[in-house]
């Protein structure tokens, strides 16, 4: 007997030692207390406007982190009733429950029950796999005990509330409330809270969208448990258990349509923070204003649709199969709505009326006002069952089509380069090519202000006469080039002010020839243009460079802010999931009395790089002021005069049209906002007769600026001390008396004004009328 006892004790000791060794090995594999305290939730990357409205969300896991003080007490009770009513009493493990589960599993011949407490579920979800093995269960128990030592009950419950998977990519109860009910937790009813509390058992198969009956059964079980535990009374139980299923699939509410800029922000975050940017819950606040962005979207789409209506109707986008005309939702579900431009099915087409049915079953009759632009009648171009688009912008209903034409709009603050609005095309989801920053196009006459600015720095004035007569340029290779004005008209000696307002090509060519292309290229580099993108021939005068709309906007910002080169930026700050700012914009700022800092060695403050750069002066204040006056003339009496409809006197700008009408531009500004608009085809070809910058691009700019400048007072540029006004003659540009009926007040940099009333003769080196039309040799 003693021997048996000794053997039993020995075996027990060995067994205990083995168990101890196994537990020690397993325990060493568990995370440390420090790792547990440093638990980080995986949240998607979210992009916002500067005023905090959601633009985009990136990441596979939908999670909205919440704290215990934001959680309704009814939800906590529902979770405890469903999962672990002894949560606040045990030490992380329900040993009696585990014993029951072990017996049940032995009877079942496998692992059927788990008996996991909330603490054990937190341990599993944060640190362990979901495999059903006894080893994992041991780890779960040990880790739960460790969690209870390291964290308070509320901290553990908060982790559970934010981590648990609840179906449809929703992680955490706040995300689930958003996905299923499109509400905050605090706004949910008891029935809805009980529904969510019941989801952890079978989140994919038992949620109210996948299996409403199963979800209701689980909800009612939770409610019964709450009643039995005294958490709710019989009346509340009855009301909640009789509530119908109200869950609907809701996606993240995008509050502002700015997909092109959102993609720029996403690309920046992944480039600087790696793939973890999708998981670490960063919140990126961009510089764009939600109001400005909305105005930009409307203006560009309206302008491109207007262009499209001027160039024939291409017909329906699809035809329904026979017998499906009465199922509009089925047929048009594959077509996206773009704002107010929505798909519909033709339900009737007569000589004078077009009836369409939308996806929700509503019917609309479109009169001639809405289809008249096609140049024919509905019964000749459409039939019952055709799929079409309808433009419902501003409560009007037009037969529409998605345009083949493309465009871009960039709007900056000239003070520091902040992007106020950006649209890279008609529809981001039809193609992610961002024309605002990726399309390299010829600017045409949009480049002329930079050339005229160079002229002011090289001996010319706003009153200098330059010949607008025909010119033939012959290269050393024997090729000839005969540039023409847009209007095909011939002009004699023309003042620079008038030449820019009329956008005379021949004057621009003569200016570049007189200064030399290298001088002009040097000057254009001051505006941020890359020398490699600027041709070294006279074609530079007519905008044969290759630039993006963003680069053009940056260049015009130099005029708008009085002569400083600012760098466009679009991220104001980056916050982590706790709201701590991890990155500020390191923008270039205006400081007229400051010298640009040496940015080669940025200093470090509080572990964050700080680089207080000041914008370098690219242009003298005198040059900028006179150029703004010249471009103001473009709007007052020149090619940009449509902009007078805005009723402001503080605007300046320039149209741009390239050869064969392949690109149309307008860039304009005041001291608060600078905006560039480009219109063209991705594969360059003719936009059509008379589709110049003034017709295709300027109306978009006007529509946008009418909203961007609404309520802003006019702000005129202050005249530099070194700029004076002198009376000159309209025809000769020479000094004249104040009572000359052909005279006007012109701006001059002091010392460059005409000194005497001259005869109006112009130098013979091409600056003046050249009646012979002789060939000019280029070297």
Give the secondary structure arrangement, pairings included:
Elements: H1 2-28, H2 33-37, E1 45-48, E2 54-58, H3 73-83, H4 95-108, H5 118-127, H6 134-150, H7 153-163, H8 173-181, H9 190-197, H10 212-228, H11 234-241, H12 259-273, E3 283-286, H13 290-309, E4 318-319, H14 328-332, E5 341-349, E6 354-358, E7 363-366, H15 368-371, H16 378-381, E8 386-391, E9 398-400, E10 406-412, E11 419-423, H17 435-438, H18 448-456, E12 465-467, E13 472-474, E14 480-481, E15 493-495, H19 496-502, H20 505-515, H21 517-525, H22 549-560, E16 564-565, E17 571-575, E18 581-584, E19 603-605, E20 608-610, E21 616-617, H23 621-637, E22 652-657, E23 663-669, E24 674-680, H24 693-708, E25 723-729, E26 743-749, E27 775-777
Parallel strand pairs: 1-3, 13-27
Antiparallel strand pairs: 1-2, 3-17, 4-8, 5-6, 5-8, 6-7, 8-9, 10-11, 10-24, 12-15, 13-14, 16-21, 17-18, 19-20, 22-23, 23-24, 25-26
Structural commentary:
The protein is α+β, with helices and mostly antiparallel strands and 779 residues long. Among the domains are: 1-30; 63-241, Orthogonal Bundle (Penicillin binding protein transpeptidase fold); 444-546 and 721-779, DD-peptidase/beta-lactamase superfamily (Beta-lactamase, 3-Layer(aba) Sandwich), CATH 3.40.710.10. 35% of the residues lie in helices and 16% in strands. The strands form eight sheets. Strands 4, 5, 6, 7, 8 and 9 form a six-stranded antiparallel beta sheet that branches. A five-stranded mixed beta sheet has the order 2-1-3-17-18, covered by helices on one side. It is elongated.
């Amino acid at each position: 007997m003693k021997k048996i006892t000794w053997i039993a004790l020995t075996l027990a000791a060995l067994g205990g030692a083995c168990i101890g060794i196994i537990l020690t090995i397993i325990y060493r594999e568990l995370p440390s207390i420090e790792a547990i305290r440093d638990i980080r939730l995986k949240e998607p990357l979210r992009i916002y406007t500067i005023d905090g409205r959601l633009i985009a969300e990136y990441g596979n896991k939908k999670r909205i982190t919440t704290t215990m003080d934001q959680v309704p007490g009814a939800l906590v009770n529902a979770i405890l009733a469903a999962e672990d009513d002894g949560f606040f009493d045990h030490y992380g493990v329900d040993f009696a429950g585990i014993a029951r589960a072990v017996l049940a599993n032995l009877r079942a011949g496998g692992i059927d029950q788990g008996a996991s407490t909330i603490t054990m579920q937190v341990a599993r979800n944060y640190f362990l796999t979901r495999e059903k093995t006894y080893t994992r269960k041991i780890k779960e128990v040990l880790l739960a005990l460790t969690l209870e030592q390291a964290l308070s009950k509320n901290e553990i419950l908060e982790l559970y509330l934010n981590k648990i998977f609840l179906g449809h990519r929703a992680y955490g109860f706040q995300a689930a409330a958003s996905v299923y009910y499109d509400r905050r937790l605090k706004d949910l009813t008891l029935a809805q809270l009980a529904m969510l509390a019941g989801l952890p058992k079978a989140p994919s198969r038992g949620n109210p969208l996948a299996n409403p009956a199963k979800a209701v059964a689980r909800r009612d079980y939770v409610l019964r448990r709450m009643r039995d535990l005294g958490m709710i009374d019989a009346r509340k139980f009855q009301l909640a258990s009789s509530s119908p299923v109200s869950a609907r699939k809701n996606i993240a509410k995008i509050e502002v349509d700015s997909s092109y800029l959102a993609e720029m922000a996403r690309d920046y975050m992944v480039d600087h923070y790696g793939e973890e940017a999708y998981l670490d819950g960063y919140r990126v606040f961009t510089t764009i204003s939600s109001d400005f962005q909305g105005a930009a979207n409307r203006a560009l789409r309206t302008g491109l649709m207007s262009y499209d209506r001027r160039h024939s109707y291409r017909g329906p986008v699809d035809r329904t199969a026979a017998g499906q005309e009465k199922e509009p939702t089925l047929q048009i579900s594959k077509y996206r709505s773009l704002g107010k431009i929505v798909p519909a099915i033709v339900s009737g087409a007569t000589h004078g009326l077009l009836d369409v049915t939308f996806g929700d079953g509503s019917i609309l009759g479109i009169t001639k006002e809405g289809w008249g632009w096609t140049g024919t009648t509905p019964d000749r171009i459409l039939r019952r069952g055709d799929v079409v688009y309808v433009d419902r912008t501003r409560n009007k209903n037009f037969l529409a089509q998605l345009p083949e034409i493309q465009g871009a709009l960039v709007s900056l603050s000239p003070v520091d380069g902040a992007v106020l609005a950006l649209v890279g095309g008609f529809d981001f989801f039809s193609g992610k090519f961002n024309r605002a920053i990726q399309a390299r196009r010829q600017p045409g006459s949009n480049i002329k202000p930079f050339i005229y600015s160079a002229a002011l720095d090289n001996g010319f004035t706003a009153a200098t006469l330059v010949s607008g007569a025909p010119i033939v340029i012959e290269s050393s290779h024997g090729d000839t080039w005969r540039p023409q004005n847009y209007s095909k008209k011939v002009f004699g000696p023309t003042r620079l002010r008038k030449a820019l307002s009329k956008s005379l090509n021949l004057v621009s060519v003569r200016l570049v020839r007189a200064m030399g292309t290298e001088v002009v290229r040097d000057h254009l580099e001051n505006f941020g243009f890359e020398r490699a993108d600027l041709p070294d021939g006279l074609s530079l005068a007519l905008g044969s460079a290759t630039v993006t709309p963003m680069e053009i906007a940056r260049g015009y910002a130099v005029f708008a802010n009085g002569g400083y080169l600012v760098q466009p930026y679009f991220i104001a700050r980056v916050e982590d999931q706790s709201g701590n700012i991890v990155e500020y914009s390191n923008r270039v700022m205006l400081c007229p009395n400051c010298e640009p800092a040496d940015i080669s060695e940025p200093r470090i403050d509080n572990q964050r790089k700080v680089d207080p750069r000041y914008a370098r002066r690219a242009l003298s204040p005198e040059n900028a002021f006179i150029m703004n006056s010249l471009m103001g003339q473009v709007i007052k009496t020149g090619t940009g005069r449509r902009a007078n409809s805005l009723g402001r006197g503080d605007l300046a700008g320039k149209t741009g049209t390239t050869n064969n009408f392949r690109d149309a531009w307008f860039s304009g500004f005041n001291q608060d906002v600078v905006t560039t608009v480009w219109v063209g085809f991705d594969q360059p070809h003719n936009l059509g007769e008379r589709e110049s910058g003034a017709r295709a691009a300027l109306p978009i700019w006007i529509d946008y600026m009418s909203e961007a400048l609404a309520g802003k007072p006019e702000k005129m540029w202050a005249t530099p001390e070194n700029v004076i006004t002198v009376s000159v003659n309209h025809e000769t540009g020479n000094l004249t008396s104040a009572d000359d009926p052909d005279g006007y007040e012109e701006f001059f940099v002091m010392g460059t004004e005409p000194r005497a009333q001259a005869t109006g003769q112009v130098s013979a080196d091409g600056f003046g009328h050249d009646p012979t039309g002789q060939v000019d040799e280029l070297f």
